[in-house]
Amino acid sequence: MRIDIITVSPELIKSPFEFSIIKRAIDKHLVEIHFHDLRKYALNDYGKIDDYQFGGGAGMVLMIEPIDKCITKLKEERVYDEVIYMTPDATTLNQQTANKLSLNKNMIILCGHYKGVDQRVRDLFITKEISIGDYVLSGGELGAAVLCDTIIRLIPGVLGDETSALTDSFQDHLLSPPVYTRPSEYKGVNAPKILLSGNFPKIDEWRNEQALERTKKIRPDLLED
Question: Do residues 109 and 19 both lie within one domain?
Fold first, then answer.
């Protein structure tokens, strides 16, 4: 998989890709991450990429020309399955979306900034818009890093145990059950005996029950879906 990230602040987003699972995926050549500084496609030597919005109002808007130049250049080199725009006014990211995107070969992620992008960017180039929550960040870079993490960990070969991702929260519209490890007793609190029994059918049954109960208590909206 190849992911091209278009950003006003490449230095802000690079560090999450230099550690842990994502870095191992890059080192194993399971994914390529490329960062594109939008200012390199600026309209003048001063790096102009934004302007005041028509009709007045606070906040600058990313202009269409630099974004067009960058996306057009990338599309001349390869075919992209999705061109994604990270913005708070979009459908909220969930596990099902991550699952679908993990099957793609090439993607572009455009990070919003300032007041956003000229609407014509969204109309002409964007195939999917994603939010990571009902709040506003200074830019789409952190959201893009979150999106990439959710996708990359699903690529076969990235995790040591490929079945691990399949038992994460939300994969079956349920939260994950509680988990325990050694020691089996700590400060008078014991791990559930069933987990130490070796009876795996019963363990699976217990985990399913716990997942359902936790979901009912914490995220009942998932059961409504």
Answer: yes
Residue 50, strand partner residues: 62
CB-hemisphere CA count at 13 Å for 50?
15
- Is residue 80 domain-shared with residue 16, that is, in the same domain? yes
Could you tell me the residue range of the domain that residue 195 belongs to? 169-224
Please list, residue by residue across 5-28, b when 16 or more beta carbons sit within 10 angstroms of its beta carbon and e when fewer do: bbbbbbebbeebbeeeebeebbee
pLDDT at residue 97 greater than cutoff 80? yes
Asked, for residue 124, whether it belongs to a domain, the answer is yes
107-147 per-position pLDDT tens digit: 999 999 999 999 999 999 999 999 999 999 999 999 999 99
Residue 194 lies in a domain: yes
Examine the domain organization and report whether 17 and 97 are in the same domain.
yes
Distance in angstroms (rounded) separating the CA atoms of residues 206 and 203: 5
157 is a domain residue: no
**Max CA separation in the chain (angstroms):** 69
Angle at 124 between CA 79 and CA 147, to 5 degrees: 60
Q: SS in 3 state form for 25-61?
A: HHHCCCCEEEEEEHHHHCCCCCCCCEEECCCCCCCEE
